[in-house]
């Protein structure tokens, strides 16, 4: 090869290498995560930098691409927020509070029409919202549903953390469709909502009418509800449900929430007694943790107290039983009615509670008021259509006029109740296959009548023993809840 030709080839290779290096640098620059800032003093004509922030959260979210963060400065934002696009695996779009500051998404200037949320995540994946107050959305209109947050359609890897959701209230009557939600997640697509995480949040001071504070329903496959606090609410704390009510067109095979965990949460004062003008003076129907037509859920290490009922494995559906759910290591005490409730509501539905396990829970002095039929519901309550369930290794502390176990009807079969430790400060009581007959007060007769509890034990203890337990549990609670 001639020297000139060789030199030309060398220069060409060097130029190509330079071009490749420049192109790689451009790609790296394009892929670097970007931070956008939002401030009440900003402008949507700015570039979103910390020195030139946007003013509205939606503007920043519209600019964000996978991997980007939107950081919101403290203050009150009278805005409805909607996530417009998805992130990608390893590149979440993250909406966060600016470190050390508290942004508030406030609905006090919004007139609610229909089903309306302050924050909406609709058919998007790989997104996070972290550190916001979401509050003050009220409805006064018929057949409306104010919501703090709505997670709808399909989507995966959605995280809600460290949010404080409160003062979401429907002020209509029951006849006018009183309903609302702090967090409403409904899987309405053919692909489920999955990898949904709700953690470190508080939900309180709500009026949700006939609905729940946190609803997980429809086609949801895989969720965690962990380390949250739900308190001072009008109705149910959290529900894992079939979608036949909220998503009636969903495929029967997948239209129910499943494969989830509810753990290490605190629930208290989830009760209809907060609004007697709506429910009447003697309604105690709220359940703090409720699986209603859901499946494959682990409910573990939660604390529930001073609510209408503690934990419910109940079905209000004729399509979906509550099934394959495990309730273990929970503390339920001082609730108005049942500690743990299983089976259908009487004479209402037929699906029941199937293949569930209630293990190693502590139930203490619940049933402070009579049930709907003037009966004592029982620390452990089994109504209709309970089949193939296991209730073992629980510690059950009955109050002076309490029932340790109450099975209401002749329906249900293949249930196993055994290896439980029963305590009473008065005469122990059980009822088997009756709503309100005279209770059984002899442990041996109970075992013979029920065919259960062959290896369980009973101790009669002093009121002081109960007082010491109660003090111990109260000390274990966080000082601020």
TrEMBL record:
Pfam families: DUF1565
Cell location: Secreted
Keyword annotations: Secreted, Signal
UniProt key word Secreted: yes
InterPro entries: DUF1565 (IPR011459), PbH1 (IPR006626), Pectin_lyas_fold (IPR012334), Pectin_lyase_fold/virulence (IPR011050), Polysaccharide_Lyase_9 (IPR052052)
Positions of the DUF1565 domain: 41-266
Main localization (coarse): secreted
SMART domains for the chain: PbH1
Gene3D superfamilies noted in UniProt: Single-stranded right-handed beta-helix, Pectin lyase-like
Signal sequence extent: 1-17
One Gene Ontology cellular component annotation held by this UniProt entry: extracellular region
Transmembrane helix found in the keyword field: no
Protein name: DUF1565 domain-containing protein
């Amino acid at each position: 090869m001639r020297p000139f030709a060789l030199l030309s080839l060398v220069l060409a290779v060097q130029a190509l290498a330079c071009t490749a290096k420049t192109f790689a640098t451009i790609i790296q620059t394009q892929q670097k995560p970007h931070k956008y800032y939002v401030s009440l003093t900003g402008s949507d004509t700015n570039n979103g930098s910390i020195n030139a922030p946007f003013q509205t959260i939606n503007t920043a979210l519209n600019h964000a691409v996978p991997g980007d963060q939107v950081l919101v400065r403290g203050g009150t934002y009278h805005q409805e927020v909607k996530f417009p696009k998805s992130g990608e695996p390893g590149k979440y779009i993250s909406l966060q509070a600016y470190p050390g500051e508290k942004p508030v998404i406030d609905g006090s200037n919004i007139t609610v029409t229909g089903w309306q949320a302050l924050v909406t995540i609709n058919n998007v994946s790989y997104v996070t919202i972290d550190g916001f107050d979401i509050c003050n959305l009220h409805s006064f209109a018929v057949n409306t549903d104010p919501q703090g947050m709505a997670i709808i359609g399909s989507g995966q890897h959605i995280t809600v953390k460290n949010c404080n959701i409160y003062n979401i209230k429907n002020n209509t009557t029951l006849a006018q469709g009183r309903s609302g939600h702090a967090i409403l997640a409904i899987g309405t697509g053919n692909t489920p909502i999955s990898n949904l995480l709700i953690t470190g949040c508080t939900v309180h001071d709500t009026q949700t009418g006939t609905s729940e504070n946190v609803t997980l329903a429809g086609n949801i496959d895989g969720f965690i509800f962990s380390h949250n606090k739900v308190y001072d609410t009008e109705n149910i704390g959290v529900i894992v449900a079939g979608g036949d009510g909220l998503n009636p067109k969903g495929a029967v095979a997948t239209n129910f929430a499943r494969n989830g965990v509810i753990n290490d949460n605190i629930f208290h004062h989830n009760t209809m007694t907060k609004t007697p003008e709506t429910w009447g003076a003697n309604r105690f129907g709220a359940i703090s943790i409720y699986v209603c037509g859901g499946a494959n859920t682990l409910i573990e290490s939660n604390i529930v107290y001073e609510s209408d009922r503690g934990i419910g494995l109940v079905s209000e559906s004729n399509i979906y039983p509550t099934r394959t759910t495990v309730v273990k290591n929970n503390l339920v005490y001082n609730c108005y009615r049942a500690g743990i409730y299983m089976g259908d509501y009487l004479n209402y539905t037929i699906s029941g509670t199937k293949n569930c396990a209630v293990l190693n829970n502590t139930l203490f002095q619940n049933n402070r008021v009579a049930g709907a039929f003037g009966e004592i519901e029982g620390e452990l309550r089994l109504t209709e259509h309970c089949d193939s369930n296991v209730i073992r290794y629980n510690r059950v502390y009955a109050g002076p006029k309490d029932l340790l176990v109450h099975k209401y009807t002749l329906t249900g079969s293949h249930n196993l109740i055994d290896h439980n430790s029963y305590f009473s400060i008065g005469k122990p009581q059980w009822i088997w296959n009756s709503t309100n007959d005279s209770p059984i007060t002899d442990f041996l007769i109970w075992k013979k009548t029920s065919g259960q509890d062959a290896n369980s034990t009973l101790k009669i203890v002093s009121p002081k023993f109960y007082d010491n337990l109660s003090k111990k549990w109260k000390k274990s609670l966080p000082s601020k809840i």
